[in-house]
Amino acid sequence: MALFKRLIDWIDVRIGAREIVAKELTGYLLPRNINAWYSMGSILLFIFAMQVVTGILLLIYYVPDADKAFKSVSFIMNEVPFGWLIRTCHAIGSNMMVLVLFLHMLSVLFMNSYKSPREFNWLTGFILFTLVQGISLTGYLLPWSQLSFWATTVATNSANAIPVAGPYLVEFLRGSKLVGPPTLGRFFALHVALIPLGMAAVVGAHLFFLQRTGVSTPPFGQKETANQWQGDGYRYESHPGGIPFFPNYALEDLRSIFIYLACFLAVVFFAPNLFFTSDSFLPANPLQTPAHIKPEWYFLANYQTLKIFPNEFIGLSVQGAAMTFLALLPFIDRTRERHPLKRPLFMICAVGGILLWVGLSVWGHYS
Amino acid sequence: MEHNGRRTFLGVCLGGLAAAVAAVTVWPVYRYLAPRSTRATAARVDIPEKEIPEGEAKFFEFNGASAVLVRKRGGGLIALSAVCTHLGCIVQWEKDKQDFLCPCHGGHYTPDGVVTAGPPPKPLAKLPFSVANGVITVG
C-alpha cells in the first residue's frame, strides 16, 4: 500500500490528480432524489465500448469482399474458437444499444430533462441516436447474407422517393445502380471508421455539456417542479448536500451495468438467434429476392409508415417532420413545469407517440 | 475487529468474483486470438524426383514454414529449412553460383546449408527425407 501511495503522490505532484478526483468524482455531487434511470448513459457507454472491442476482434477474421464476406462470417461462427461468442455479442449488442438508447431518451423525455439550459445535451443525444441508426444499418449489410443484401436494397431504395435527386441519391448511397460490391466497400468504411469516430466525438461533446451544465434534478419527490433556470447568465447546476458520484453513484451505475449484462448474456446464451431470421444464414443472391424481407425491429415503424402512405414521398416527409420535431423538442416545448403528471397535454402527446410507434412496429412486423 | 473481519471477508469475496469475471472474459478472447494451429501445412511432403533436376532447388511449405530441396551438381540430394538463421528471412537459391543467398542482410550458405559469408550464426537446419519409387518424402 505504501508503494501505491508513493505512486499516487508521484503522479499527484505532477498533474494534481487528487484535485481532479475531488472535483470530478468524490466531490461531484448528484441530486439526492436521483434514480436508476440516470444510469442509462453509463450503460450506453459500456455498450459502446463493448461494441468497439468486439468489432475490432471481428475485423481480424472478417473480409470486406462480396465474394468472401459471408464465408468469413461463417468461418468466425463455426471455426474460430469463441468466434460465435464475439460475433453474437456484437450483433445482439447492437440491438441492445438501440433498446437502451430508447430507454435513455424516454427517461430524459418523461423527466423533462431536455428543457433549458440542456438543449445542447438533447441535440447531441439526438445526433447520437441517428448515428446509432446509421451504424446499425451499415453493419447489417456486412455479413452479406440474403437478409443483409435485401434489407439494404429496400432501405437504400427508400431515398428514391425524394423528388429529382432521389434516383441519383440511391445510386450514390449504393456506389452502383444496385446493391453490390461497391456498396459493401462504402458501408464497411462507414461502419468501422467514419461513424464510430463521429460517435466518439459526439459522445465527448455530450459528456462535456453534461459536465458544464450539471446533472438535472429529477422532478419526482420535489415540492417545486418548475424549471428554475432564468437564462440571465451561465450557472452550473450544483447539488449541495447531494450524493457523491464516487463511490456512491458509481456503484449504482455498476449495479445497473450488471443488470444489463445479465439480460444481455441471457439473450446471447439462451436466445442467440432472436434477431436473426432464416435469410441471415443464406449467402446473398442478387438474382433471388426472398419473400417477406423486413428491416430490424427498430426500423419497422419507418417501414410501415412508408407502406401506409399512397405516395412514398409523403411517407418520407412525415418521418422527416417527426424526426425534426423530436430534434427541436427543447426549442418547441418552452413551458417551465417539469413534472410529467402536471403536464396532461405533454403526457397525452408522449404516450400517444410511443403507442403510435409501437403500433406501427407491430403492424409492420405482421404486415 | 469483527467489523473489519467482515469487511475483509467481503473484500476477498468481491476480489475473487472480479478475478473469475476477468478470467471468463479474457479466456475466450485469448482463444479467439491464439494461432489456430502451428501445423498450417503438412508435416510430410511428397515431391516427385523429376521436379528437381541437377543443380536446381525446389521451395515448398513444410510444417508451417518454408523449406527447400536441392539436387547438388553430382547428384546429391539435401532437404533444408529455407529460413535464414540470422533474422528469419527466406533464403534464395542462386543457380549460377550454386549457393543460397539471404537477400535481407547478405548471408551466404553452401548447398549443404553451411554459412560461408554474412551474419547468420548457424547453418540452415537439415530436414529428414527419404526417396522411394521416384518420390522424395520430406518429414
Automatic annotation (TrEMBL), chain A:
GO CC annotation terms, alphabetical: membrane
Boundaries of every Cytochrome b/b6 N-terminal region profile domain copy: 7-219
Domain of life: Bacteria
Pfam family, one: Cytochrom_B_C
Main location: membrane
Compartment annotation: Membrane
Signal peptide: none
Keyword match Electron transport: yes
Keywords: Electron transport, Heme, Iron, Membrane, Metal-binding, Respiratory chain, Transmembrane, Transmembrane helix, Transport
Transmembrane portions of the chain: 42-64, 84-110, 122-142, 188-210, 257-276, 313-332, 344-366
Keyword field contains Heme: yes
GO molecular function ontology, one term from the record: oxidoreductase activity
Boundaries of every Cytochrome b/b6 C-terminal region profile domain copy: 235-367
Membrane topology: Multi-pass membrane protein
Any one GO biological process: respiratory electron transport chain
Protein's UniProt name: Cytochrome bc complex cytochrome b subunit
Organism: Oryzomonas japonica
TrEMBL record, chain B:
Keywords recorded for this protein, A-Z: 2Fe-2S, Disulfide bond, Iron, Iron-sulfur, Metal-binding
GO molecular-function terms, A-Z: 2 iron, 2 sulfur cluster binding; metal ion binding
Gene3D superfamilies for the chain: Rieske [2Fe-2S] iron-sulphur domain
Annotated source species: Oryzomonas japonica
All copies of domain Rieske, residue ranges: 44-138
PROSITE patterns for this protein: RIESKE (PS51296), TAT (PS51318)
GO cellular component terms, semicolon-separated: membrane
Protein name in UniProt: Rieske 2Fe-2S domain-containing protein
Cofactor list: [2Fe-2S] cluster
